[in-house]
Structure formats: C-alpha cells, structure tokens
Amino acid sequence: KFETPHVFVVFGASGDLAKKKIFPTLWWLFRDHLLPNNTMFVGYARSNMTIEQLRASFEKNCKVRDEEKSLFEEFIKKCSYIQGQYDKAAGFVALKTFIDEFQKVSNNQPVNRLYYLAVPPSVFEAISTQLAANNKDNGDSWTRLIIEKPFGYDLDSSTKLSKHLSSLFKEDQIYRIDHYLGKEMVQNLMVLRFGNRILGPSWNRDNIASVMISFKEDFGTMGRGGYFDKSGIIRDVMQNHLMQILTLVAMEKPASLKAEDIRDEKVKVLKAIRPIELKDIVVGQYVANPEMNDTDAKLGYLDDEGVPKDSVTPTYALGVFNVHNERWEGVPFFLRCGKALNERKAEVRIQFKEVNGDIYPPGDLKRSELVMRVQPNEAVYMKIMTKKPGMGFGVEETELDLTYNNRYKDVRLPDAYERLLLEVFMGSQINFVRTDELEYAWKIITPILKELEEKKVKPVQYKFGSRGPTEADELMKKHGFVFTG
Ligand code: BG6
Questions:
Q1: Which of 21, 181, 237, 343 is the best mutation target for the ligand 1 pocket, counting ligand atoms within 8 Å of the beta carbon and taking the most?
Q2: How does pLDDT run across 70-102, given as a tens digit for each residue?
Q3: C-alpha 241 – ligand 1 centre gap (Å)
Q4: What is the DSSP string of 419-477?
Q5: What positions does the domain Glucose-6-phosphate dehydrogenase C-terminal occupy (predicted)?
Q6: Which of 335, 331, 311 is CA-nearest to residue 323?
Q7: What are phi and psi of 29, to 5 degrees?
Q8: pLDDT above 60: residue 466
C-alpha cells in the first residue's frame, strides 16, 4: 500500500532562512512522525551544491540527539537538491521531472506539492510565475504556496504582488506566513476570550481601559542594518505581527472555527481602524550605550554597516490605534515595538478600568490587568487586588499566575514554524494571512509611513539597553495608560 506522496520544495535553499529555520523545522516534524510518511524534501537554489553541502548547511541547526542519528540519515535520504535559476524554466522543468518520477515510484499516485519561497521578495513574482507554468498539480492532487514577508513595501506594492499571486493561484493555495500566528500564546488568545465566560462579557469598552501589545528585543540590528534600513520597525514588526495580534484581541466571535469565518472577523477589525497621524506615534532610533558591558551596545544603529549616516529609519515605534466600532470606540490600542531595549519580551496587556464606587482608601486599588506573555517564558497572568494576608484589612496587588513552565512541565511547546508548516500540510489557513487582511493592514499603516518618510521625521534617540524613548511613556499616559509597576 502506497501512502499519498508529498513533495516539499524550499526555494532559496542555500539562504539563511532555509538553513536556520525551514530545514531544521522539517526535520523536527519528520522526527516526531508528524508528516505524511511518503514525503520528499527538495532544496532549490541558484548555486551549484551537492546534497552533502546542503546537509552541512543546516545540520548543525537541527540539534540532532545521539539516539536520533539513524533517523536523521533517513531524513537526509529523503532530501534532494535542484540547481536552477528563479526566472528561467529549465530548473522548474527539472523539478517537474523529479515530481513525475516520484509519482511513478509511488504507484502512480498524484503528488501533493508544497512550495516554500524562502527567497528575497524581488524573486517572488519570477518563481511563482515559473511554478504556475511548470509545476502545478493536474487537479487530482493539491498545490500550496508558502511565502514570507515582506509582502510589498506599502499598499501599492503589496497590492501589485497580491494581484500577481491571485492571477496564478487561488486564495486557498496561498499561505502567507506571519510566524507570530504560530506562537502558543497567540494561538491561545481566541480560547481565552471565547472559552471563558469570566472574560468574554468584560471584553469591551465598558470594562477595558486600554490594550497594549508590545514587542521588545534586547539586541540591535547586528550587522543586518543595511537590510533593516529599507524597512524599519513599523514594516518589520508593527504592520504584521502586532497588527495580527490586535485583530485577535479585538475581533468579534467568529461564526465557527473555520479559517474563513475567523479571517472574516479579523478583516472587519482592520476595516474599523483608521490610519493614525503623527500625533499618535513616537518613533525612536537607538544610540550606543558605552556604559553597558556588552560589545554590541557600543554600536548605535547608525554605526551598523550599511546604514546611511543620516538614516531616519525607526528602530522603535509606539503607535496609538483606535478600533472604531461599538465594542472598542475610545479604547486605545498601544502597539509598541523596538530593538536594542532593556529586555526581550513580547506580550499582550489588557488594562481594566477602575471599579465603580470605590470604597477603599483613595489610591489603594490598582487597575486589574490580564497579561498574556508571548515570550520568553509563556504565561497568562492576572494582576488583581486581594486582601493583604494576615491580621490586617489592607489591600494589595497580587497575581493569578499561569506560567507554562510550572503548570505544563512536561509539555514541549513547538516552535512557531513547526506548527505553521504542519498546518500547511493539513490545509488549515486559520493562521495565515488572507489577501484582504494584508490589504487592510497596509491601508492603516501606509499613510503614516509616507508621512514619516516624506517629512523625514527625526526619530527620538534612545540608549541601547534602555526602556526606549520616555516620550512613548508620556504618550501612553496621555491616553490613559497607568503604569502599575
Ligand atoms: C521578524 C523580524 O519577523 O521577527 C525580525 O523581521 C525580528 O526583525 C523577528 O527579530 C522576531 O521574531 P521572534 O520569533 O524571535 O520574536
């Protein structure tokens, strides 16, 4: 009996993403027996490479344990390499021959195809055109295309790319990765909201004072500055990862758990957000911090090779957004992201309003908060008021704490890519960005990007390793955020 054959092709096989993430992820899925048994992996790139060289490029990232060595050899036996150009048919014809052969040895069963574009966006169009011409299925199996940001540079370029893709592939074949959607805590958001009567009814403007979604990294651009300078933190993190989380926090309950029902609701949220203005944003750029005992901190963003000395590209941004609908009108959504800050942390923080008719001494009660810590050290915790334990009657703030490391000691949380690639095999598009979602996210972000860029707005300087510009805290306070400490 032959199981359905699948082929997973990685374009850009010699690149960083392929060797750091994609091949290791495929290995982990293979190792854990999560993939269809009859699956072949193909690396495709322009350089001349042997399969040994391909293997050598990613093996050290696979963290193969001693007892897994023979299984790893089996994985390698399933890997092939095809050398070819991205804009010429020859390599794609070779790929077709490979797939046809695979079909033959699989008892002539049609091959399902997964194509991963781990390449710079400049070749997205070329590859997808060649794939559509040479490597689609014949209707008796399926073809899925996986792509990674950047999906364009602004609304126009993104629309152009989307139109191109839509002319060649159907929406249910296009899997746009936003790897934040593969993180445990981001996937947990819907369950928390829609699975708990205790949270659902208070999830609105009557009870919630603000929503903060933040992304902090404690390292700078580290030599990637030349690349980063063309995008900046707003395109790199806010337009995609943070905006996606926002939609999950703000959306109405979908009609079902089907991908289209969920994505419909997310799109409605995006449609209800208006573009922001300069007064709603603080942008920053990090400078060296000679006092820190860290060699990276000795370099500011402008010292990174490849970054123009007069660059005004933000490495930090805080934007205040509003969702103009009945549930959220007036509730600020703070999207905050930055590099070279004091810590690496991503979280969603829901700050609730003060209680009505407070009977405690003024100032004693603090606002309750619900925090979903995406990374590191996944947790859901709630800051609440409680009676100070003991003889007294005073109140104090404490935490209801669900730290995953404590509660789920034996559960390994898979990497975002493991989950997402598996979902592509399974055909679930819940955690992938639909064309209209992308379009509306760009509609929100493009005007402010244009304004910042046209006016060459100078970012506020902040020190490597600091909390970021104090102007950002001020803007949040102005919109009613209370730093509870
Ligand atoms: C990427 C950004 O999308 O996400 C990077 O391009 C950023 O700049 C990275 O460092 C962060 O991902 P993670 O999973 O390490 O938080």
A1: 237
A2: 999 999 999 999 999 999 999 999 999 999 999
A3: 9
A4: HHHHHHHHT--TTB--HHHHHHHHHHHHHHHHHHHHTTPPPEEEETTB---HHHHHHHH
A5: 190-481
A6: 331
A7: -65, -40
A8: yes
Percent over 70 (pLDDT), the chain: 99
User: pLDDT band at 260, cuts 50/70/90?
Assistant: very high
- Is the per-residue pLDDT at 417 higher than 90? yes
DSSP lists the bridge partners of residue 373 as 347, 379
Instruction: Name beta bridge partners: 337.
Output: 215, 317
To test the pocket of ligand 1, the residue of 16, 224, 236 to mutate (highest count of ligand atoms within 8 Å of its CB) is 236
Question: What's the pTM value of the predicted model, to 2 decimals?
Answer: 0.96
The CA distance from 118 to 265, in Å, is 29
Output the 3-class SS for 250-267: HCCCCCCCCHHHHHHHHH
According to the model, what pLDDT value does residue 392 have? 87
Per residue in 214-258, pLDDT (tens digit) is 999 999 998 889 989 999 999 999 999 999 999 999 999 999 999
Query: Cis omega (within 30 of 0) on the bond before 150?
Result: yes
* Burial track 354-367 (b if 16+ CB lie within 10 A, e otherwise): eeeeeeeeeeeebb
Q: Rounded to the nearest 5°, which phi and psi values hold at 400?
A: -90, 115
What number of other Cβ atoms are within 10 A of residue 454's Cβ?
8
In this structure, which amino acid lies at residue 55? R
Give the confidence band of 484 by pLDDT, cuts at 50, 70, 90: confident
Query: What atom of ligand 1 comes closest to residue 236's alpha carbon?
Result: 6
Quick check: CB of 236 below 6 Å from ligand 1? yes
d(CA 143, CA 126): 17
Q: Which is it for the CA torsion 278, 279, 281, 283, positive or negative?
A: positive
Which atom of ligand 1 lies nearest, measured to the CA of 217?
10
Q: Give me the catalytic one of 6, 179, 241, 324.
A: 241
Query: Cβ distance 146 to 117 under 8 Å?
Result: yes
Q: What's the rounded Cα separation, in Å, for the pair 207 and 201?
A: 9
Q: Is 324 a catalytic residue?
A: no
* Distance, CA of 141 to CA of 32 (rounded, Å): 25
Can you give the pLDDT at residue 338? 98
The token duo for 221 is: 């651009």
- Amino acid at site 450: K
Instruction: Give 132-189 as a DSSP string.
Output: HHHS---SSS-EEEEEES---SSHHHHHHHHHHHHHHS-GGGEEEE-GGGGSHHHHHH
Which amino acid residue places its CA nearest to atom 6 of ligand 1?
A: 236
pLDDT at residue 428 in the model: 97
Give the mean model confidence (pLDDT) for residues 254-275: 98
The interface predicted TM-score (ipTM) is 0.94
Q: Which of 172, 143, 149 is nearest to 161 (CA)?
A: 149
